[in-house]
Amino acid sequence: MVAIVRILARRIILLVPLMLGIVLFVFLVMRFSDVDPASAFFQGANPTPGQLHDFREQNGLLDPFPVRYLHFIGDLLHGDLGISALTRAPVLDQVATALPLTLQLTFLGLGIAVILSLLGGVTAAIYRDRLPDQIIRVVSLTGVAAPAFWLALLMIQYLAVDLGWFPTGGYINPADSFTGWLKTMTLPALALSLPVAAQLTRIVRTAVVEELDKDYVRTAIGSGLPPRVVVGRNVLRNALINPLTVLGLRVGYLLGGAVVIETIFSLPGMGKLMIDAVKNGDPAVVQGVVLTTATGFVVVNLVIDILYLLVNPRLRDAA
Amino acid sequence: MRDVTRDVSTAPHRRSFLKYTGALGAAAAISSSLSACSSGPESTNDTGGGAGGANSTITAVIGYGNDGSWDPTQTASAFSMAANNHIYEGLLDTDPISREPYAALATAVPADLGSTSWKFTLRAGATFHDGKPVTADDVVFVFDRILDPNTQTLAKGFFASWLKEVKKIDARNVELVLKFPFPEGVSRLTLAKIMPKHVFSQPGAWDDAIKGKAIGSGPYRQTAHHPKSNTTFEAFAAYNGPREPAFKKMNWMTMVDAAPRVAKISGSSAGAQIADNIPYANIQQLKSGGLDVQGGAGMNNLFLMFNTKHKPFDDVRVRQALRYAIDTEKMVQVALKGHGKPSTSFLNEANPSYRAAKTVYGYDPEKAKALLKAAGVSGLEIEILSVNVSWIVDCLPTIKASWDAIGVKTTLNPQETTAVFTKMDQKQDYQVVSAASNPNQFGLDADLIMHYNYGPQNLWMGYARWADNSVAKQLFKDMDRATQEPDPEKKKTMIQDYIDIVAEEAVLYPVVHNELMTAWDPRKLAGIRAQPYPGINLLQAKWV
Q: Using an 8 Å Cβ cutoff, are B476 and B319 in contact?
């Protein structure tokens, strides 16, 4: 346990330069924006050059670059992501409003991907090279090739417009109606998760097939244990380590995919917030969304690393 | 064997992995569900039952952003203007189609419109949505703001030239004193929405009004406003005016992108009952689905506005060249599917004051090249800053192709309407703006339409940086003379004459006038009339 704590502390310490690097990168990239914060602050008020100069001086915009970077980090540590140039509202408020929806979408997509990939992958492995395996292979390869936005448009056309089973877009807060929430989130989550489910199905199949070929499985089945028990209790547990690790990395894809999916389904989450901000030239919002998403991705991967350490003694020993 | 023993003692067994991950997944699911219940975006869709019935929520889809200004004295936003017509009242309001005035907050239309004194009595029992009574002080408060020489409002351009002052007679009576007889002004009173003085005289309240705070005395009360998402309303129980609310609740969603907007009103379980700004390509599809799709030709137009302080757009020949270069017929056929006409005047052909301008920009690329050559311009590169309204975006490729064809390297930069005009307000540099306009939002009379875009302190002239030009100064004088002309026929001729100057200068001028289409479900809604300008009006609509 001491080893785990030591590794955990080391990983967390390593996060500091990583996060500083991310912040520096975002800070540098956003400096190329052509939106002047001083002009943005006085929007519509026709400020004099003197007013603009005073604003820049008071807000440290005339300071040397490194000083501004340090101030930027200081503001971040105080939870200050800046002010939107268009709405003049704190970016943190906008992010705090949009983030829960993106988390809901991501985790719902994650859940669907896990369930579908387990069902598909295990079935394909058990029926290796037979008809079910061939069908699942074709379906999963099609899924890998199909972009999420295309699936989203197809679903809107057939499941929402033609059949009317789901709304074509928009959002219902679960506090208002849980079933309404489920209806508005199902198509976006499906569209987001199907490509991930297809990829994971391939990985689960491979992992389960490898396990099924091992001696202990033959021994277990030969000694009279029902195949259902062997697969469910032994094979699956051992085979899932790699797929679960990959799944952690896929969280990043799901977060990124939400950008497009939220726009298509008119969901007011982080993705739509960022797309709108990019289109409207609102650098503070873009900066806030990118930093929040990057932080989320780093944290998720830290959790996955820790879980992997728990389960893999060789890595722990090496550390 | 030793390794196995150590594993067990120092760390969870490999089989515990599933427990950890399962617990993590459950924790994540629970925490995200909890966070979802307590925070996150507000609902944008109707959370009630199906459509139909007096208690249902009507869902409308508007093809314009709801994040523009909501200050009635200061907005040209299609969404907020349409919404404000349901929230606020003027002394008089106008029919959305004929623009005939009717008594709204006042009890009657003045009998003698040729007089320079109009007296109004406020409706007995009229109250604002916060429960306070509407008084003459509120009326004076709004007109004082509009006429204040130190406050720049959009509405000032509609009133300041003819309205001298507004006086309180007593708590329920006011007098409007005109500078000269101006009968057309009666239709403009709907543009002065009466706002509660006790709310909007507070520090920072006008900023709040811009951001969406709306408290009026109209039939619907604003219940929530989520910029870029939706705005909700409910029937105002204490409303005692002439337009009784027929819907208990309304949810107006903003969907600027055409595809989700059309999808929202399509199919057997459509999530909305009415949508404006229907793309021409989807008309047949929606009609075959049982919807009514109707439109009207009005002043709706795609215009180009040049930054006249940005060379070479200070040269009228360059501005003219770029207009002659545009293949407007192709734009009408390809982008507008025939639902429009190349502009032959600032006004649309159906306007009573229309006359083809002396300068009509027919497609003539050779003339365009010659004008550019005469202006000494070569190797010109232009970025068109455009709004992302769907039909405008459809038209942009034709402009690009036309300008590229005469050797002008063109790039397109469509953005949200709010973003474009925030940049204008911030005085950011630009070359050319392409946007949608429809002064019919404010009214039909040509004097109003021209003053919306042209005038010495006009917002648009500020954007175009043209107000201090000598031609512009003379134009504004001509406009003022026409405003004061009492003879309607003479006034019409004067307006047509100065529109010739506007056409020739081509600073801010339409490229095409087009129809606007509205779709609704006639099995659920009755009393809908399609507007030839953006937005919807549900004041006389009802459930079937």
A: no
| Whole-number CA gyration radius for chain A | 24
Say if the Cβ atoms of B41 and A174 lie within 8 Å. Answer: no
Calculate Rg over the CA atoms of chain B: 27
Q: How far apart are CA B348 and CA B389, in angstroms?
A: 20
The tens place of each residue's pLDDT in chain A, 319 residues long, gives: 677 777 778 888 888 888 888 888 888 887 776 666 676 666 545 566 777 788 778 777 788 888 888 888 888 888 888 877 666 778 898 888 888 898 889 889 888 998 999 999 999 998 988 999 999 999 999 988 888 889 998 998 888 888 888 888 888 888 888 888 898 899 999 999 999 899 999 989 998 898 888 888 888 888 888 888 888 777 887 787 777 777 777 777 777 777 788 888 888 888 888 887 877 667 788 888 888 888 888 887 788 777 777 666 666 665 5
Angle between helices B16-38 and A283-311 (to 10 degrees): 150
| Pairwise CA distance, residues B78 & B65, whole Å | 8
- C-alpha torsion sign, points A276, A279, A282, A288: positive
Which residues sit opposite B304 in a β-bridge?
B434, B509
Which string of b and e fits A253-266 if b means at least 16 CB within 10 Å? bbbbbbbbbbbbbb
DSSP H or E segment with residue A239: helix A236-239
Identify the DSSP state of B279.
-
Torsion sign across C-alpha atoms B63, B65, B70, B74: negative
A39 token code pair: 């002009």
Question: In sequence order, which residues have a C-beta less than 8 Å from that of residue A47 and are 6 or more positions away?
Answer: A38, A39, A55
Q: Where are the alpha helices (DSSP H) in B89-204?
A: 136-147, 156-159, 197-200
Question: Cβ contact (<8 Å) for A279 and B388?
Answer: yes
C-alpha A216/C-alpha A220 separation (Å) is 6
Report CB contact under 8 Å: B17, A103.
no
ipTM above 0.90, yes or no: no
Q: How many CB pairs under 8 A join A and B?
A: 190
Residue A263's closest CA among B421, B33, B259, B224? B259
- Judge: A177–B415 Cβ closer than 8 Å, yes or no: no
- Tell me which chain A residues have a C-beta less than 8 angstroms from the C-beta of B11: 1, 3-4, 310, 313, 316
In chain A, what residues touch B269 (CB-CB under 8 Å)?
A: 160, 164-165, 167
The CA distance from B505 to A105, in Å, is 53
> CA B84, CA A244: separation in Å to the nearest integer?
53
DSSP string spanning B494-520? HHHHHHHHHHHH-SEEEEEEEEEEEEE
Q: Which residues of A touch B266 (CB under 8 A)?
A: 161, 168
| Cα of B270 to nearest chain A Cα, Å | 7
The dihedrals phi and psi of B174, each to the nearest 5 degrees, come to -135, 160
- Cβ neighbours for B133, distance < 8 A, ≥ 6 positions apart: B125, B126, B127
Rounded CA separation B255/A171 (Å): 13
Cα separation, A180 vs A185, whole angstroms: 9
Letter string b/e over residues A66-85, b meaning 16 or more CB atoms within 10 A of that residue's CB: eebbeebeeebeeeebbbbb
In this complex, the residue of A46, A101, A265 whose CB is nearest that of residue B41 is A101
- Grouping H, G, I as helix, E, B as strand and the rest as coil, residue B162 is coil
Q: Which amino acid is at B172?
A: R
- Contact call for B415 and A281, based on CB within 8 A: yes
